[in-house]
Write a structure and sequence with these properties.
The structure holds two protein chains of two kinds. By secondary structure, chain A is α/β, with parallel strands linked by helices. Chain A has three domains: 2-170, 3-Layer(aba) Sandwich (Rossmann fold); 190-356, TPP-binding domain (Rossmann fold); 372-549, Thiamin diphosphate (ThDP)-binding fold, Pyr/PP domains (Rossmann fold, 3-Layer(aba) Sandwich). Chain A has a six-stranded parallel sheet with strand order 3-2-4-5-7-6, with helices on both faces. Chain A has a six-stranded parallel sheet with strand order 11-10-9-12-13-14, sandwiched between helices. Chain A is globular, with a radius of gyration of 24 Å. The N and C termini of chain A lie far apart (72 Å). By secondary structure, chain B is α+β, with helices and mostly antiparallel strands. Chain B folds into two domains: 2-79, ACT domain (Alpha-Beta Plaits); 82-152, Alpha-Beta Plaits, CATH 3.30.70. Chain B has helices at residues 15-25, 54-66, 96-107, 128-138, and strands spanning 2-10, 32-37, 43-51, 70-75, 81-92, 111-115, 119-126, 143-148, 152-155. In chain B, strands 5, 6, 7, 8 and 9 form a five-stranded antiparallel sheet that branches. In chain B, strands 2-3-1-4 form a four-stranded antiparallel sheet, with helices on one face. Classes of the chains: A alpha/beta, B alpha+beta. At the A-B interface, loops of A face α1 and α2 of B. The complex binds thiamine diphosphate.
Chain lengths: 568, 163
């Protein structure tokens, strides 16, 4: 059957089982929008800014594990989308982004709304395509989905010139594709796995450190089984939260720049470190020179060979699908005679308990001003730990990560790699679209929320009753904290002046607004908000302006060179 | 240390810019890069001369391998290999220099491929070292223009780089 390129795009999406596309129309994608109009398989969600389309599709993917899909027009549509593409890229989120392009004959002539999409997006995509012939369109769409979701996932851009979307050709969606230049590893090396198990069993001071790879690889059950079987302490990175149940006694909290004291100490002083789907980045291990410990041996499991020995040299690298590798480790472990050294393990746990007595996440619970940590704790209680929580970037993000206990994967959505302010609300939109019966809370700051505030309108249109928890400290809090600690209290441009009245703002978009100023009202407000099942509620909590996130490892410092709350 | 990487890469528009972009984005050294299609027109062969510590070279190889269109990467320094670079150099050839230059060219097995009253254009192939030595032997004062292709490399013996 002869179909237009535009129809092929939509049919391909349907064939991939795509439910939602977030997008924004324009000249170069008009044929595609016309085809969207004529069908009801793929539902389009009209955002208010292309950046939000990308973030929402990205949030949907983070929450579901499926490929997130966005559709934008050429030129400014694409440039507006770049932040969203780069955000997904840094966190390895599988996405397919269809972009309109000027007609092939106009490419290179500085046509209206032309930009070099393949060139601009190249450094922040897993791969991209410019489709010059309609005959290549279906197979390119297939490749895009395959590349996005396989191996180390990532965003893939398909750039479709307007004449290609208009041209006709025979359509048959390929059932599979293979590419000779792309063969992601799946199974880990058995010899290496045996070596790793051996090393783990020999450990006197073991530590298990896991990242976003466990979430992306849907390996939380295997990881949990392994950690429990061994009885070893476990930590998750910011991206890995939910990979291991946070309420479990073997969980020591998040590690890194704002990790707990006990976790950072254990990372530094362990003798065998198992790293799973994590990449030893600067926010996680601090200065690699300081992190180096000749007595520590490292096993590193990752799907991407280039993540191995990039910042930290490892002793036993294992490249493969994390859940496959962990399963094989479990099998080997169960068939091995030797058990972990119980004596040594007991002493190690005693040491960890000692570190825990620092009570490093302590804050003033008697304060008359709302403490941001308190709000997150109450949110956890009110939602019984069952909400999907998104955040923006800043202090509130760290408090969310420290104080909301994630027991399951894909419940915590945030921008860890690029650190993009503005993702919180669109992530919540994507998550809620996927799970209409789950509470979705967006923990944000008064600065971050303003970066995609226009999406309150999209939430109204599509009935997305998100609960926004605005930790309003009237500061670019994280910036102010760095300025306080590292720049002699000179708060250069970090005060958020001329803030809108968020209650009225929410109301003007047709939502419910609340302002909460007293600690005693925090829980009540949250309960009231979550009772309003079908309304978006914007809760503006006026919080302590000078509260800081502790512990803190300053950029470039060693992981154990932590500043604790009482030291300032 | 200097390394020569050999790549087989899909012969597609934009493939070259992916490789070049990777090197600049990750601040890897790139001394030269040559590329041309192979006997199989769907494949190009690329030779990249780079330098760095062993760790850096390992990262470069892995990152290049990760590019979707790269079919294969080999670090030629891991085995024995042959490298050749072509240079064309135009020199001022007047007076007593004229004879001297021709002699120097002969010693390096260069060929004069173009002649005017005042100039010679010499073609020379060899390792980059040899070309450097030739330039030094000629001396800056007589050289008017040089153009070099950058090295191409191939493994020695029966070892073959194939898809
Ligand atoms: C798009 C973008 N611009 C700038 C930054 C740098 N930055 C990191 S945190 C932060 C302040 C965030 O303020 P707010 O949203 O109020 O959160 P708080 O830290 O006060 O909790 C800034 C400006 C960023 N991460 N993203």
């Amino acid at each position: 059957m002869q179909l237009s390129g535009a129809e092929i795009v939509i049919r391909s999406l349907a064939a991939e089982g795509v439910e939602f596309v977030w997008g924004y129309p324009g000249g170069a994608v008009l044929f595609i929008y016309d085809e969207l109009f004529k069908q009801d398989k793929v539902k389009h969600i009209l955002v208010r800014h292309e950046q939000a389309a990308l973030h929402a599709a990205d949030g949907y993917s983070r929450a579901t594990g499926k490929v997130g899909v966005a559709l934008v027009t050429s030129g400014p549509g694409v440039t507006n989308a770049i932040t969203g593409i780069a955000t997904a890229y840094m966190d390895s989120i599988p996405m397919v982004i269809v972009t309109g392009q000027v007609p092939t004959h106009a490419i290179g002539l500085d046509a209206f709304q032309e930009c070099d999409t393949v060139g601009i997006t190249r450094p922040c995509v897993k791969h991209n395509f410019l489709v010059k012939d309609v005959k290549d369109l279906a197979v390119t769409m297939k490749k895009a989905f395959y590349l996005a979701a396989s191996g180390r996932p990532g965003p893939v851009v398909v750039d479709v010139p307007k004449d290609v979307s208009a041209a006709m050709c025979e359509f048959e969606y390929p059932s599979e594709v293979s590419m000779r230049s792309y063969n992601p590893v799946t199974k880990g090396h058995s010899g290496q796995i045996r070596k790793a198990v051996q090393m783990l069993l020999e450990a006197k001071r073991p530590m298990i450190y896991t990242g976003g790879g466990v979430i992306l690889g849907d390996a939380a059950p295997q990881l949990t089984e392994l950690v429990r079987l061994l009885g070893y302490p476990c930590t998750n990175t910011l991206m890995g939260l939910g990979g291991y149940p946070a309420t479990d006694p073997q969980f020591l909290g998040m590690l890194g720049m704002h990790g707990t004291y006990e976790v950072n100490m254990a990372m530094q002083h362990c003798d065998v470190l198992l790293a799973v789907g994590a990449r030893f980045d600067d926010r996680v291990i601090g200065n690699p020179k300081h992190f180096y410990n000749p007595e520590r041996r490292i096993v590193h499991i990752d799907i991407d060979p280039s993540s191995i020995s990039k910042r930290v040299k490892v002793d036993v690298p294992i490249v493969g699908n994390i859940n496959d590798v962990l399963e094989e480790m479990l099998r080997t472990l169960k068939s091995e005679k030797p058990r972990p050294d119980a004596q040594a393990l007991k002493a190690w746990w005693a040491q960890i308990e000692l570190w825990k007595t620092k009570d490093c996440l302590r804050y003033d619970r008697t304060s008359k001003i709302i403490k941001p940590q308190f709000v997150v704790e109450k949110l956890y209680e009110v939602t019984k730990g069952e909400a999907i929580v998104t955040s923006d970037v800043g202090q509130h993000q760290m408090w969310a990560a420290q104080f909301y206990k994630f027991n399951k994967p894909r419940r915590w959505l945030n921008s860890g790699g690029l650190g993009t302010m503005g993702v919180g609300l669109p992530y919540a939109m994507g998550a809620r679209q996927a799970f209409p019966d789950t509470d979705v809370a967006c923990i944000t700051g008064e600065a971050s929320i303003q970066m995609c505030i226009q999406e309150l309108s999209t939430c109204k249109q599509y009935h997305l009753p998100i609960k926004i928890v605005n930790l309003n400290n009237r500061y670019l809090g994280m910036v102010r904290q760095w300025q306080q600690i590292m720049h002699g209290n000179r708060y250069s441009e970090s005060y958020m002046d001329a803030l809108p009245d968020f209650v009225k703002l929410a109301e003007s978009y047709g939502h419910v607004g609340m302002q909460i100023t007293k600690p005693a009202d925090v829980e009540g407000a949250l309960r009231e908000a979550f009772k309003m099942k079908d309304r978006l509620v914007f809760m503006d909590f006026l919080t302590d302006q000078t509260e800081n996130v502790y512990p803190m490892v300053q950029a470039g410092k060693g992981l154990t060179e932590m500043i604790l709350a009482e030291e300032l | 240390m200097r390394h020569i990487l050999s790549l087989l890469i899909e012969n597609e528009a934009g493939a070259l810019s992916r490789v070049a972009g990777l090197f600049s984005a990750r601040a890897y050294n790139i001394e030269s890069l040559t590329v041309a299609p192979t006997e199989d027109p769907t494949l190009s062969r690329m030779t990249i001369v780079t330098s760095g510590s062993d760790d850096v070279i390992e990262q470069i190889t892995k990152q290049v391998n990760k590019l979707i269109e790269v079919v294969k990467v080999v670090d030629l320094n891991e085995g024995r290999y042959i490298e050749r670079e072509l240079m064309l150099v135009k020199v001022r050839a007047v007076g007593k220099d004229r004879e001297e230059i021709k002699r120097t060219g002969d010693i390096f097995r260069g060929r004069i491929v173009d002649v005017t009253d005042k100039t010679y254009t010499i073609e020379l192939t060899g390792t980059s070292d040899k070309l450097d030595a030739f330039i030094e032997a000629l001396g800056k004062s007589v050289i008017l223009e040089t153009v070099r292709t950058g090295p191409s490399g191939i493994g020695r013996g029966e070892w073959i780089m194939r898809v």
